[in-house]
Amino acid sequence: MPREDDDALTWDGDDDPTLDAGVDDAPAPSRLPAGYTAVGKGSEALDAAVAPAQDSPATASTVDITGEPAPLGNVALVTFGVLGGIHLLYAVGWFVGGQSLNLVAQLFLEPAGFTAAWLLASLAPLVWFATTLVLTRGAAVWKRMLPLIVGVVVLIPWPFLMAGVR
After folding, report:
1. Do 20 and 57 have their domain in common?
2. Domain shared by 102 and 65, yes or no
3. Angle made by CA atoms 83, 87, 88, in degrees to the nearest 5
4. CA distance 47 to 51
5. How far apart are CA 28 and CA 46, in angstroms?
6. Pairwise CA distance, residues 126 & 83, whole Å
7. Mind giving me the DSSP string for 21-70?
8. pLDDT > 90: what percent of the chain?
9. Are residues 102 and 64 in the same domain?
10. Domain identity same for 60 and 105
11. pLDDT per position as a tens digit, 61-87
């Protein structure tokens, strides 16, 4: 006889044999292509089937059993978002800071030249961010983060910080 406090842990029909237990009986592939390392659930069986004479672990890339690249972790995604937000704020800072310098710049520079430089400076953080993401698409996460952090340091909107908004 079940105890009274165990009733809360069961549900009528839990012992029904027709329920799917979630076990997948699909056959696992016997080998991975050269240069790949299995990770995740079921990778032990694949590692045992792979010949030891294949590529060294240093040259193998991390992939899922399905053959797709491993997704970015939560920390990496949040960091990319924060760095993207900083670059976006820098673009706004260059735009606003350039507007505040417009009157002073017209005294010393050609207006068309100043406008072109102002717009290019405003777009520079966005171009830096997009170019870094495109050119480092298959690289390790730290190799993608490093140029973005360098961009945060190099692209500081000095006109906005020095002159502010008037």
Report:
1. yes
2. no
3. 115
4. 8
5. 8
6. 11
7. -----PPPPS-PPTTEEE-STTHHHHHHHS-TTS--TTTPEEE-TTSPBP
8. 30
9. no
10. no
11. 455 555 566 677 889 999 999 999 999
Q: Are residues 55 and 80 in the same domain?
A: no
Phi-psi region of 67 (alpha: psi -120 to 50; beta: other; left: phi over 0): left
71 and 103 in contact (C-beta within 8 Å)? no
CA distance 16 to 12: 9
- Residue 30: what pLDDT? 63
Number of domains in the chain: 2
d(CA 130, CA 80): 11
Of the residues 49, 70, 91, the one at which a domain ends: 70
Q: Are residues 95 and 109 in the same domain?
A: yes
Domain extent for 12: 1-70
The last residue of one of the domains, among 43, 70, 97, is: 70
Please list, residue by residue across 48-60, b when 16 or more beta carbons sit within 10 angstroms of its beta carbon and e when fewer do.
eeeeeebeeeeee
Residue with tokens 């170019």: 131
| Amino acid (one-letter) located at 88 | L
| pTM (whole model) above 0.70 | no
pLDDT, position 25: 59
**Do both 98 and 63 map to the same domain?**
no
